């Protein structure tokens, strides 16, 4: 069964509440699902985080089970009808997934067709590695290898270069270019309010903002919103030979 994946750049955009900008898309994505397993490990306070998500998802008719409450995390993943991995620190999130040996089981469940929703850090770990995250390495996971649900890297919260800025530090584009000096995996920079929806092997850019595709030795390409991305060789992984953490 083709994977069903919805990757959000962020959980909150300016002027809106938690996941408000993506509510209609999430509602449609989870239309046939009334219970979601939430993975809160990107933030330190799991209980407060889970309660926030529970209140939000109640508005779309979905009950939330939080993985931090599970006495059997593997069993919870294997029973889940849908997964939501929230944002926070990507290194902390990935480290905890390794500690619980959940990368392989999550990958298997998504390959079997259950919906996968990721926001920020939860979108980062959907790629082959977390090497294009913006987060500080506050903990050290065993590897940067992540779920590999898609064959491209995600850079959430992508910011375009500001020609009027007096800041002399590296732009996001320069940092992604440095990544491509060492790695040829494509990178999609998701601006705030953008999201990628993957259904039936096709990917579409949704949301209120655009995205840019970065490839090694090629100029960046603007991805058009609302149009299926079929002319790129970026495809989802129905099953992956990229299997860390099994």
Would you kindly provide a written description of the structure presented here, covering whatever features stand out?
The protein has 246 residues and is α/β, with parallel strands linked by helices. The protein has one domain: 3-Layer(aba) Sandwich (Rossmann fold). 25% of the residues lie in helices and 20% in strands. It is built from 7 helices and 12 strands. The strands form 2 sheets. The protein has an 8-stranded mixed β-sheet. It starts with a strand and ends in a 17-residue tail after the last strand.
Output the keywords.
alpha/beta; four-stranded mixed β-sheet; eight-stranded mixed β-sheet; 20% strand; 246 residues; Rossmann fold
Give a short summary of the structure.
With 246 residues, the protein is an alpha/beta fold.
- Overall structural domain count: 1
The total beta strand count reads 12
Q: Main beta sheet: strand number and arrangement? A: 8 strands, mixed
**Could you give the distance between the termini?**
21 Å
Using only C-alpha atoms, the radius of gyration works out to 17 Å
CATH topology: Rossmann fold
Strand content: 15-25%
Estimate percent helicity: 10-25%
CATH architecture group name: 3-Layer(aba) Sandwich
* Strand and helix order: EHEHEHEHHEHEHEEEEEE
Strand order of the largest sheet: 3-2-4-5-1-8-9-12
The low-confidence runs, each spanning 5 or more residues with pLDDT under 50, are: 233-246
| Overall pLDDT metric | 90
Described by the principal axes of the CA atoms, the overall outline is globular
Structural class: alpha/beta
Number of helices in the DSSP assignment = 7
| Name of the CATH superfamily | Class I glutamine amidotransferase (GATase) domain
CATH class: Alpha Beta
């Amino acid at each position: 069964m083709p994977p069903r994946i919805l990757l959000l750049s962020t959980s909150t955009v300016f002027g809106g509440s938690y996941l408000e900008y993506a509510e209609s898309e999430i509602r449609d994505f989870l239309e046939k699902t009334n219970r979601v397993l939430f993975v809160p490990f990107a933030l330190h306070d799991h209980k407060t985080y889970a309660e926030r998500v529970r209140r939000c998802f109640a508005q779309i008719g979905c009950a939330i089970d939080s993985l931090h409450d599970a006495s059997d995390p593997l069993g919870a993943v294997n029973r889940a009808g849908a997964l939501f991995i929230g944002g926070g620190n990507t290194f902390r999130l990935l480290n905890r997934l390794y500690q619980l040996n959940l990368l392989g089981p999550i990958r298997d469940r998504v390959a079997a067709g259950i919906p996968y929703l990721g926001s920020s850090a939860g979108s980062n770990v959907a790629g082959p590695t977390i090497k294009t995250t913006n987060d500080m390495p506050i903990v050290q996971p065993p590897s940067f290898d992540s779920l590999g649900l898609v064959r491209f890297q995600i850079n959430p919260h992508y910011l375009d270069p500001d020609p009027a800025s007096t800041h002399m530090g590296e732009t996001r584009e320069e940092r992604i270019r440095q990544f491509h000096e060492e790695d040829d995996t494509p990178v999609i920079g998701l601006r705030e309010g953008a999201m990628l929806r993957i259904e039936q092997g096709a990917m579409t850019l949704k949301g209120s903002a655009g995205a840019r595709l970065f490839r090694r030795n090629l100029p960046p390409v603007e991805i058009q919103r609302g149009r299926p991305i079929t002319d790129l060789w970026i495809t989802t992984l129905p099953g992956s030979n990229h299997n860390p953490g099994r």
